[in-house]
Recover the amino acids of this structure.
């Protein structure tokens, strides 16, 4: 309504709220809409692809990172797949070698 040019008073009457509540909501929306929300590199995978990577490692613990990358169909480096698995608390399945 505000983007359509309505006054704060008119919006407040329409939604049955106080003018100050409408004004605060509008200010917060405009402030967050223009502010950069995150810093750093943009994500290369979606949340769904992240879950598929983890699911594949759970189903077959011996699967390689390259195989996961090919099956999921994402163009990311194998190190990123390792990071996804580490974030999900999945560790390497290599056995411990004791010293003799």
């Amino acid at each position: 309504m505000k983007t359509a040019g309505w006054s704060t008073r008119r919006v407040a009457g329409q939604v049955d709220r106080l003018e100050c509540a409408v004004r605060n909501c509008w200010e917060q929306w405009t402030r967050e809409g223009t502010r950069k929300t995150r810093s750093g590199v943009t994500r290369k995978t979606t949340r769904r692809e992240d879950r598929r990577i983890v699911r594949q490692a759970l189903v077959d613990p011996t699967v390689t990172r390259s195989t996961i990358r090919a099956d999921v169909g994402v163009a990311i480096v194998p190190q990123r797949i390792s990071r996804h698995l580490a974030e999900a608390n999945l560790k390497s399945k290599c056995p411990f070698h004791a010293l003799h």
In short: Helices lie at 8-15, 19-34, 47-59, 65-72, 78-87. The CA atoms of residues 40 and 98 lie 41 Å apart.
